[in-house]
Task: structure prediction
Amino acid sequence: MTEIRVNETVLRDAHQSLMATRMSTDDMLPIVEKMDQAGYYALEMWGGATYDSAIRFLNEDPWERLREIRKRTPNTKLMMLLRGQNLIGYRHYADDLVDKFIENATKNGIDIFRIFDALNDPRNLEASLKAIKKYGAHAQLTIAYTTSEVHTVEYYKDLAEQYNNMGADSICLKDMAGILTPAVARELIPAIKEVIDVPLNLHTHATSSTAHMTYLTAVEAGVDIIDTAISPFAEGTSQPATESMALAFEELGIDTHLDIDVLEEIADYFKGIRDKYLENGTLDPKMMFADPKALIYQVPGGMLSNLNSQLREAGALDKYDEVLNEVPNVRADLGYPPLVTPMSQMVGTQAVFNILTRERYKIVPNEIKDYLKGFYGKTPAPVDEEFRRSIIGDDDVIDFRPADRLDPEFDKLKEELGELAKNDEDVLTYALFPQTGREYLEKKYLAPTASDEPIKIQARYGK
Ligand code: CO
Result:
């Protein structure tokens, strides 16, 4: 290995992981032209939770952010994270909506779509892959990494080969929890490289403090692209620091294409931004510490803090360890889904119910019932039939691609939105986030003044 390429995550995953995706466009734009000079392979800067956060908390148009960043980055590819048929929302959308979303994202400047499915069911990537090809963008088909008795090297090898054969332009191994260890990377990376003929990108998190070793091992084992975050927004639940990785690899004789001086200027800029968010409490310094619990429990750091706050709200924080021990049991019952959105929330909530009601599966959320009916896709391991029937009774279980149940919906949603639908982007905002999306559009188009409008809207919609 004589060279690698590096993606910068500060505009998406770094602030999503450290401070609930609250970085504003105003804090990004002054430095983006400089970032364009750094030699990054791509800027990961859109998708994931950024869209939701922009309309819900920042009162910003996510499409405007994309266009403004695009204008300033003629030399660098822009990448977004897309949850396959879930796009950037929380349910499966019909194929026509997937097509419309990708058409508009491409038109506004996305070059690379990093697409994954929470169950690693390739059928859930078909529609987005087709649209990405149709609009001439790069499809990075992505494997969600997790551990279980079925998630063997062979399993990942088969999946990588399938993604390769489906027409991936590159493949990403996405370790959203930061639990991929150097020993596993040493075995897994060459096994995947063996069956693919496109570049392999590794994405991990510094949560457990093993990511730096994992990156070195993975690069030595043949990985082509890694993801890092500029130092002020690196480490902890974010990625390892860009400058540190660049310096270490350059010294090892591995060209990263990065300009260290430019990285220094970018870091200086983001130090000021980080300090602002630390001072106003948006960034909790605890998120920047190492937390090997993720490695021990094989549970993503974000899920640990969610469980913690769910239990605190329920006044049952003393049940934290019991719930944590129940998570692997629920996951086994459900056929070992990776703990990534939306499965992490579903498994976590079920574990909380199982412990707080003192009876397992006494209360089962509809999402879990739908999951057991096959609406989310194929489970990684088979689910015990007796268990399934105890939850969904005689209801049908589908074995076809889940989105085949869904009728086209774009035109219907456009009509529903009425005068607020000024363009495709507005319809997509409403489709993805029916309530907050509509509220956002009302603020944008109907509000005479911005100041007291959120209260009026709350009164109108009751929430
Ligand atoms: Co990530």
User: Anything to note?
Assistant: Residues 452-463 have pLDDT under 50 and may be disordered. Residues 13, 176, 203, 205 surround cobalt (II) ion (CB under 6 Å). Residues 10 and 229 are 5 Å apart (CA to CA).
